[in-house]
Amino acid sequence: MIKLYDFPMSPRARKARIVLAEKGLQYEKVNIDITKGDQKKPEYQAINPYGKVPALQDNGATVYESSIIMEYLNDKYPTPPLLPADPGQRARARVLMHLGDNAYDSALAAIVGEVFFKPKGQADQDVIAKAKQDLSACLERLERELGNNEYLVGAFSLADVCFATWAPLFGPLQVEVPGQCAKVSAWLNRLKERRGVKAAG
């Protein structure tokens, strides 16, 4: 039985939930409440020494880091495939996953840190402005990457998952997709309507 160590509000944990839903896999969910420091407890750090969510256990295998978990699930449970078969497109998907896990994730996490974790009225507006600028640069790149495709590398893939997980927070964070990124807006709306994305919560 697959066991997912999860925190419902974590966009990174949501990545694993989306892949599990897309593949129709049953799993046990173990809540790690990061607001109470559960991730720092020795019993959890024995599973994930980084002390972060998510982590996954599956028939003796223990995997952590959200994109590595996604790739593990895609390798172990290949139907439906969530990476292209073509090596060039597969590499391109991973390049876009890297963008999602780094520049995109970092920009949004910086805004979350100011908006949700600072006392009211104490958010650093310079930090927020810089993060929104970085985020806009990511979205403008995605506008180019999408071309005329419905998803980043043609069919829905792990690359799309890396960006879908943060989209529900755009409203609360007062983040807007730039007006010149109409394809990105349509793509994010398309992602929100996917069965697997909805099922992941």
Summary, kept brief:
51% of the residues lie in helices and 9% in strands. By secondary structure, it is of the alpha+beta class. The chain has two domains: 2-76, Glutaredoxin; 87-199, Glutathione S-transferase Yfyf (Class Pi), Chain A, domain 2 (Up-down Bundle), CATH 1.20.1050.
Which helices and strands occur, and which strands form pairs?
Blueprint lengths: L1 E5 L4 H12 L4 E5 L10 H4 L9 E4 L2 E4 L1 H11 L10 H29 L9 H22 L11 H7 L17 H12 L1 H5 L2
Helix pairs in contact: 1-3, 1-6, 4-5, 4-6, 5-7
Could you explain how this protein is built, in words?
With 201 residues, the chain is an alpha+beta fold. It folds into two domains: 2-76, Glutaredoxin (3-Layer(aba) Sandwich); 87-199, Glutathione S-transferase Yfyf (Class Pi), Chain A, domain 2. It contains eight helices and four strands. A four-stranded mixed sheet has the order 2-1-3-4, covered by helices on one side. The protein is globular. The mean pLDDT is 96.
Structural class: alpha+beta
The CATH class of the largest domain, by name, is Mainly Alpha
CATH architectural grouping of the largest domain: Up-down Bundle
Low-confidence stretches: none
List how many beta strands DSSP finds.
4
Average residue-wise pLDDT: 96
| Gross geometry | globular
Predict the CATH topology of the largest domain.
Glutathione S-transferase Yfyf (Class Pi), Chain A, domain 2
